From TrEMBL:
GO annotations of cellular component type: plasma membrane
Entry keyword set: ATP-binding, Cell membrane, Membrane, Nucleotide-binding
Superkingdom of the source species: Bacteria
GO MF annotation terms: ATP binding; ATP hydrolysis activity; transmembrane transporter activity
Domain ABC transporter: 2-210
Official protein name in the record: Putative ABC transport system ATP-binding protein
């Protein structure tokens, strides 16, 4: 379902960042590990179609991402890839429900409030549907971001440092919510983290080294 081969990325003025080949099947759950500077967030952004590699290929659900551009890439991303960034980026002037409706629209889908209600209920935040992000706690915002990422039933769910700056109890709860959401979609889940607390929960791991 997910395959990366001979993948490289270069930031302006920087050296190439090279990534090991990697494959995951539908429904796999995996960790992307490594210290700061190892390229975790860069790889997640490439998997999400937000950065374009310098070389190599990314295949998701049988589609090579580099073969898509513009609206085709936007629609593919919206339909097949769910992304929970470290900075959640919920639109502050929209309610939780409206944030999820926008995710459906950007994916080229029809508005489906029944699906939205189902996702919000599964995450325990159906009562917050009409609130704006500014009225939510950090944990509620994270659940809303996961709802937005899974409302279109993606094949690939990505999370960048979802337990960063959380205490032990909140970190365990955040991980449980992510795992449950991925299983509900039968999605492949990739979590990028440097948090050692997560390692014991997920055996499938790819560790990146600091680039020299």
């Amino acid at each position: 379902m997910l395959s990366i081969q001979q993948l490289e990325f270069t930031y302006p003025g920087g050296r190439p960042i090279r990534f090991p080949d990697w494959q995951l099947s539908q429904g796999d759950i995996a960790l992307l590990l490594g210290p700061s500077g190892s390229g975790k967030s860069t790889l997640v952004a490439m998997l999400a179609g937000l950065l374009t590699p310098r070389a190599g290929t990314i295949g998701i659900a049988g589609q090579v991402l580099q073969q898509l551009s513009g609206h085709a890439l936007d629609h593919f991303r919206g339909r097949h890839i769910g992304f929970v960034p470290q900075q959640l980026h919920l639109l502050p002037l929209l309610s939780v429900r409206e944030n999820l409706r926008l995710a459906q629209t950007l994916a080229g889908q029809k508005r489906d409030d029944v699906r939205i209600d189902h996702v919000l209920k599964s995450l325990g935040i159906e009562a917050l549907a009409n609130r704006r992000p500014g009225a939510l706690s950090q944990g509620q915002k994270q659940r809303a971001a996961i709802a937005r990422a899974t409302v279109n039933t993606p094949k690939l769910l990505l999370a960048d440092e979802p337990t960063a700056n959380l205490d032990d109890q909140a970190a365990e709860a955040a991980l449980d919510v992510l795992l449950d959401a991925a299983r509900a979609c039968a999605a492949t889940l990739v979590i990028a983290t440097h948090d050692s607390r997560v390692k014991h929960r997920i055996a499938n791991q790819l560790t990146l080294g600091v680039q020299s």
